[in-house]
Amino acid sequence: MKCCDVEQVLQELLDGEPDIAFEGRSSERTVEMRRASSDLEAHLKSCPACSELAADLKLISSQARQLAASEEPPSRVWVRIAAELHAEGLISQPTPIRPVLVPTSAPRRWSLWWLAPVAAGLVVAGSYVVSHRPAPQVAQQTPATPVTNAATAPSPVPAPVPLPKTAAATPASVPAPARQQLAQKESKPAGLPETAAGQAVANAPGNEDQRAEDQQFLSVVSTLAPSARATYESELQAVNADIRETQAYVNRNPGDEDARQHLMDAYQQKALLYQIALDRIQ
Amino acid sequence: MTDPTPGITEREAIEQAKQGNEAAFEVLYNLHKRRVYSLCLRMVSNPVQAEDLAQEAFLQLFRKIGTFRGESAFSTWLHRMTVNVVLMQLRKKGLPVVSLEETLETDEQAPRKEFGAKDLKLTGSIDRLQLQRAIDRLPPGYRNVFVLHDIEGFEHNEIAQMVGCSIGNSKSQLHKARLKLRDYLKFMRAEKAKTG
Question: Does residue A74 lie in a domain region?
């Protein structure tokens, strides 16, 4: 076999299941293909270029399989689907979330307050990680975001907000990841490489504060909307995994703007998840 | 497929969705959303369009769920429906769902076989984001066959039926897609080596 014949045979044999491909063929064709296969193997042993080609194509094919189901759709997709199902009258048994979730006591109602700053803070955190620019004003702007407005508008009681205990010593409008990042920014020496700060920030979704907030979020959801807990838990796991994975990539490729944007999207998606929970629960 | 929601299986969710139960719809959505959205995203390479297509695929599924009798796997049914939704959209936009044969392939589209030095082998593993970008750069026809075969696991006869081409054409497109991806990935590595 010559190098110019290799591609033709590879095309036949690399499609995953050559034995299945032989089925249904005439026995003559089957014998021909098996001979070609053994010729190919012999050629690959003696030709580094063709061997490399075959290995690369196999690698591409095998790695591609891992892309199936690798992307998490934004939470708004389900929101739109559910709205359409309602509009078309396909839902006759709505999920009884609202009746169950009517606040029955002030502490319960107030226990949801921390979701809004956490959601807003996630956007801040994402912005900071992506831009790596000191932006103290960003945190100050947070109360003006729709997330915060949505949370504050319905509440008539001007009582103090019982934040998660991790937030006790810090301003209520800034959740742990953002607080940590802002603290890092404040203490960062002028000459510190920006990637170092970004790298530290990047671990936010996996740090203890974030985990604690996630757990508190889930415990509130499971108390007020038990049927929705699994959904939110799975959403949280997915978006946290996405943030971690993308951050790891950004750490390796700090100049990759697309990856930074993807990371920002992931943070925004997490913020949206909190916001949706807030909208549904309150 | 296992159900992430304790106490309800996919089969039960299907039956409850047939009765119009919103929570059951949501369970089914959560079970399959990643696969459906990823498929749409790979085929159109546009997150906004992918969201719309995923939404349309699920809506079609939910509208027809009363006709699902369980003879085939629910996921198979949904994924075929998703592919059809995407292909219909591509046809509406006048985009090729399968590339024409190499007679019409321009030099720009043809795999550059001379590309890539020996010292830039794709050994080990390929970075996921780089592979995603390389797939996004494929011409739509090549991309569709590659996504359907190598990512989604459809057979050539199924692909030929869905996109409306011969089995041989499907195989040929797949092989060319892999060659182009190899070129793109080597190019990316070379660029990264230059800059980094």
Answer: no
